[in-house]
Each structure stands twice: as C-alpha cells, then as structure tokens.
Amino acid sequence: MEGFKAKQVKLTEFDVMNTLGTGSFGRVRLAKQKSTGEYVALKMLKKAEILRLKQVDHIISENTILSNINHPFLIKMIGFTQDDRFLYFVLEYVAGGELFTYLRNKGKLDNPEALFYAAQVVSMFEYLHNKNIVYRDLKPENILIGSDGYLKLTDFGFAKYCDSRTYTLCGTPEYLAPEILLNKGHGKPVDWWCLGILIYEMLAGIDPFNDEDPMAIYQKILKGKVKFPRNFDKNAKSLVKHLLVADLTKRYGNLKGGVNDIKTHRWFADMDWDALFHKKIPPTYKPVVKGKGDTSNYSSYPDSTELPKPIKPADDPFINW
Questions:
Q1: Whole-prediction pTM
Q2: 3-state class of 8 per DSSP?
Q3: Choosing from 15, 137, 155, 315, which is the catalytic residue?
Q4: Which of 184, 198, 279 is nearest to 239 (CA)?
Q5: What is the pLDDT of residues 22-46, one digit of tens each?
Q6: How far apart are CA 135 and CA 102, in angstroms?
Q7: I want to staple 78 with a disulfide (CB 3.0 to 4.6 A). Which of 23, 90, 156, 170 is the partner?
Q8: Residue 241 annotated as lining a ligand binding site
Q9: 7-95+292-305 has which fold?
C-alpha cells in the first residue's frame, strides 16, 4: 500500500468548531471543509510550547510519518498548514470517540470484543514495524472507534522511524516497557509489551501495574509480576504472559517468528486476518452516530480564549515546511 500523501492546505478552507480533546501543546477541534461539507479533526499545536518543551523533532517526525502511512486502522492526515502561532494537522474525523471512554463506560470488555480490538492493534503494528516505525504510545486514549465499529490509531507524537534502538524516555507510566525504564535502548518490542497491557486492561478493566504513584508503577513493572482475575480467558492470559516479558529474547513479536507468533497464538485461532483487514468481520459494537459532524461520543470542553504568543520568523523551525 502506498503512503497517503497529505497536502498543504489553507486554514480559510475550514469552519473551525468545537473542541474534541486537549493536550500539552494545544487542542483538537472539529472543523468543516467549506467546499465539500466534509468534517475533519483539526489538531492545533502551539509553536511556542513545542519550542519551550524541545519537541520540534517529535513534531517533524509526526508530520513525516502521518504523510507516509496508509492503513485502514490508522488515522489519515488530509493536510497541514501553519500560522505564526500554531501548526495545524488536518486529520480524518472519527465520530465514535475514544476506546478509553467506551472501556470506562463498560467497565471491561468480553473476550470476543477484546480479541477483535486486539487483532486490529496487531495489524496496525505489523504495518508500522514493516515500515520501521515504532509507535511507543499505545493506550485506550489514542485509539478511536469509527462509526463502522472499527478502530483508528491516532496521535503519532511519540512515533519514530527506528530500525535498531532509540533512547528517548516517552510514553504513559502504566504502559512503559521495562527497557524504557532501564534506559537500555528500545525499539519495536516496546509496542508488543504495550499490546499485552492493553489486552489485560480490556479484559480486566484495570491495567496490570496500576498504582496512584508513578514510582510505584515503575517498581511493579520492573518486578514483572502479573496477577490475573479469576475469570480472565485462559488463552488471552497465555498471550499476555508471552507479551509482558522483560527479556526481549523471549517476548512475542520479537522472536524468530516475528508477528506471526502473535497472529498464530491460540487466542487468535479463529481470526481471519484478511477479512479483518478488509473490514468484513461484523463488529460487536457500533457507536451511535447521528450524523457526520456528531460529537456526542466525545467529552465537551470549554473553548480556549487564550492565544499563544506568535514566534518570530527567525525562531520558527517550521517556516520552510
């Protein structure tokens, strides 16, 4: 599959509407393309904050990766633009909200549903890793549910081209792999560790190394003892144990069989991977979406009136994009 090429757009092409989510560099807003009436998600990133937090490389990497990926379970970037205050990524709008919200509302998922979602994550990572992209930030907040009931992975701020090892500490405390904590250098296997955490969280309703205190979470991760609830599916338990392995020479996804060790595991015994890729498997849940611009599956946020300071063209690393 060829990469999906994003193009430079003009902000005046869009009517900017309500906020869908907020982050450390800005917010994501719903927008409507005036010429087509299509809805998009507009990711607005404050240039001054990116510079202050020394995140320029991450943002450039995010733009490059989003411009070069094309997969049914990965968010598509339609275009990008900028002004003196913000960078703007124009992304497809996914109306079903976050997996995080769905999971919190349901408490936990039943086995077939968790399996259906986990298989899509396997497919995402197989594609990204084949392109030497490590994602590094899997969590339910970064997984959106489309109106068709299938997933879309979003937020590529920590994703990186990496054919061997990288050393940046990044990710969410509960999902950090031991090799990131130990600063040993890490690569694609961190994504398979995160898959193990996600499967556990979907089936148990809580992550395996949870604690109020991040330092206690890190200690639990390094100890590596995972307790499973009594009703946890035994095949899922087997796969999670093969993924949450500190020793990289034993972690599934990183052995001689690569991703096939995961895809042929008995938990996925009945999965038709080709039918999944072509979205031919009926989803167990389809979000209620009342129309293309419906935002009812997202939390509501107060509008920001604060405008970040413009930065001087001489200080702007993005000016020649």
A1: 0.93
A2: strand
A3: 137
A4: 198
A5: 887 889 999 999 999 999 999 999 9
A6: 22
A7: 90
A8: no
A9: Phosphorylase Kinase; domain 1 (3.30.200)
